What we know:
This protein is of the alpha+beta class.
Amino acid sequence: MEINGVHIDETFAEAFPMKGTRALITAQNLEWAYHSARAMTGFATSVIACGCEAGIERELSPEETPDGRPGVSVLFFAMGGKALAKQVETRAGQCVLTSPTSALFAGIEEGKPVPLGKNLRFFGDGFQISKKIGGKRYWRVPVMDGEFLTEEFTYQVGAVGGGNFLILAESQPQALAACEAAVAAMKQVPNVIMPFPGGVVRSGSKVGSKYKALNASTNDAFCPTLKGVTKSQLSPEIESVMEIVIDGLTEEDIRRAMRAGIEAACALGAKNGIRRISAGNYGGKLGPFHFHLREIMA
């Protein structure tokens, strides 16, 4: 299969089950909502070392938020429910409670509860008060700029992590330009995040290492500087490879995001140095979700 001169490999991205949740952060204005959201979702690129994967999903207009202020929605993914709850609560306490004018609300209304204000309320040292509205409990915690308003719980659902595709180009600037176009398109798809910096990974990995302490190491088959010294999957004209990883609330969300991203990358075409689209998998041994590139783009 070729799209605008870009070869689509006959392969698949291999993904795995995760637990996911969404929270809504509001503030006096978008700038302060973003300050809080960026802090809350920082250092959350990979569960390999970060404990969770997280990112900003989208901006919210005042009409979309519980308190009628501007905000952003954030998504979190972890390998299990306990880890997810711990990460959300810790990050809420350090990054939202602390952020001027912020408030925090549930972004998913059904599933297993994930504490937001349930335990953070104790920061109020007995001065906190709660109120039930529409069956939901909200906490008002006194803080130095006024009060921190938070819903007691958000909720977790089954999710999918590790959707991905690789962009292979003739040069590093061309690969990055294609990734930027792909991420911009994928940000229009709801229920997904691309957790790495700018949505892009330059250090794709393989399972295992020659060093026993490491579970993952550089994906040498796709490293252009290793052509000739390893079993390379790169042809001579490929000089840069970058990966986009996607976490989503459902398989279909991942599929839509991959299609949007690959379409955007291929729109630049071979004339701009984009030569191939591939994907990372482990022969079907890592996870039950297989996203076949040619089926997605058919």
